[in-house]
Design a protein that fits this description.
The strands form two sheets. Strands 5-4-3-6-7-9-8-10 form an eight-stranded mixed sheet, with helices on both faces. Strands 1-2 form a two-stranded antiparallel sheet. The chain has 13 helices and ten strands. 39% of the residues lie in helices and 20% in strands. Residues 102-194 form the Methyltransferase domain.
Length: 348
């Protein structure tokens, strides 16, 4: 297994000198100062109010520290439960048969890659992200690997390298033009008989209470001011559909509940994950509102007690607060003249 991944890396790393890929260091977690020192040695970071932010992509509002990575792991487990699997594309048998090359673009914590690599040991999995992916090398499966690289520089792989390309929840990372550029790169590195799967969330809380609405409005205001489209999933869909490079496109939509209004345990987990994300966004919220800590509290944005503020008591269940999540599955056409078929299915 290790030999197969090594062989794949030789293929993937066959690049020009300008596409230098550095193997990420392992970040240990003994002390906060040690984490900070090691992180700052890899990429230019800045520390704001005790949270670590990446400088290379100032549009991306989320921090890239241990608390955020832990939130991403929880988020991975949450959406695996909501969607009943790690993916929706019909590739289970091919993954089990082995030999598939799988790429996760914007892999974040690496939880999806590690989970998939353990479940399908006969296939090879590679995650790429601008921030360093912390993974205990002793726990990392031999068929999994990670690259630290800015995908806005283009994916550093030859054409038609991967059988399955996966990407999710990068809605806050790119402008519409950058999304168009990235989508074309996803298409380029996917084999003609491969699959692409994208999952994105609408940056808006549906049926919000008064405090939740303040957070939702502030988030959309901040995104828009940075050139980010809060409803980018619609444009992603249009770019894919209008590319004329797919013979089959399917779109699935689900509502992710906040709270216990669906009597499902993942509603509470979703609320907790949203609260963690809002805590990570506190720096951005204060910046877009132009307020300090005192004014932030005065406007009804509590730095503590987020669960109570968002949940607003039992009313959250009555209002059915939720997020909309869309999953798009695309199969590249073996021949460009094949007619596309758009099949939208909703399972709200």
């Amino acid at each position: 297994m290790g030999h197969r991944l090594s062989k794949l890396k030789k293929i993937l790393f066959k690049q020009t000198s300008q596409n230098v890929i550095h193997r990420p260091n392992i970040i240990r977690r003994e002390t906060g100062s040690e984490i900070l020192v090691e992180v700052l040695q890899i990429f230019p970071y800045r520390v704001i109010e005790g949270r670590i932010f990446l400088v290379d992509n100032e549009r991306y509002v989320m921090p890239c520290d241990i608390p955020e990575k832990e939130r991403l792991v929880t988020q991975h487990e949450l959406y695996k439960r909501i969607w009943n699997d790690n993916f929706s594309s019909p590739i289970h048998e091919r993954l089990n048969q082995g030999g598939m090359r799988v790429l996760d673009v914007g892999c974040g914590s690496g939880a999806w890659i590690l989970d998939m690599a353990k479940e399908y040991p006969a296939s090879t999995f590679l995650g790429i992200d601008i921030m360093e992916t912390s993974s205990d090398i002793m726990q990392q499966p031999p068929n999994a690997g990670f690259l630290q690289f800015n995908v806005l520089n283009g994916l550093p792989f030859p054409d038609e390298t991967f059988d399955f390309v996966y990407q999710r929840f990068l809605w806050a990372a790119f402008t519409p033009n950058q999304w168009i550029q990235l989508i074309h790169e996803l298409i380029r590195v996917t084999k003609k008989n491969g699959r692409i799967e994208l999952m994105e969330i609408e940056a808006k809380i549906h049926n919000p209470g008064p405090i939740a609405k303040k957070f939702s409005d502030a988030a959309q205001q901040h995104l828009t001011s940075n050139g980010i489209d809060p409803k980018i999933y619609r444009q992603i869909r249009n770019v894919i559909v209008n590319s004329n490079k797919f013979e089959s496109i399917k779109i699935f939509e689900k509502r992710t509940p906040l709270g216990n209004w669906q009597q499902a345990s993942h509603g509470i987990k979703s609320l907790e994950n949203t609260v963690a994300a809002l805590k990570s966004l506190q720096v951005a919220f204060k910046a877009v509102l132009g307020v300090d800590d005192h004014e932030y509290k005065a406007k009804g944005f509590p730095p503590t007690g987020y669960v109570e503020a968002i949940y607003d008591g039992p009313g959250c269940d009555d209002r059915s607060e939720s997020f909309k999540v869309e999953s798009l599955l695309a199969k590249p056409a073996a021949e460009t003249e094949k007619k596309q078929r758009l099949n939208c299915q909703s399972s709200c």
